[in-house]
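Take a look at the protein record below and tell me what you see:
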Amino acid sequence: MQVARVGAVLAAAALALALAACTTAGEGPTASPSQTAWTEQPTGPATPGAGSTAFSASGSAADNKAAFDAAIRGVLAGDAHAKGDVVVAALKSAGFPMAATQVTGDTTSANLQAGSVSVAVKIGDSCLVGQWGTAVDGYQSTVAPVLGSGGCLVGGIPAVG
């Protein structure tokens, strides 16, 4: 049962990306590719001029992407295969709301390292989503619309806080 759950979580993360660009008629314009496409981010310091690296409670997800990336890159610079709870702690220290944060498991039901870990923070009607691990090349992140379920990650993943 646990293997099926891990498989479902990994499949759900992939599905979330596919569904993130979908909207139904009457929900407004669809997101542009630049809003939903994963962008590879090197695990180093933030690029100067790429936006504020301080979380802004009044800012949108797009406004806070640089702060999100900086917090995660800071952890990954020391450990490219960091566990989800370490990344969540860095996001919390950076001021991101834990009640709006979700993270996938970093181990499988066989107690092996997951191929990738995803973390997301819901801000307004958008989600900041980051992913890292051995199954992905470096760290990627995106700003995506909130899913129909009201969360950012598929699979019944509870909020951290």
Notes: The chain has one domain: 2-23+36-145. Helices lie at 2-20, 33-36, 61-78, 84-93. DSSP finds four helices and five strands in the chain. The mean pLDDT is 75.
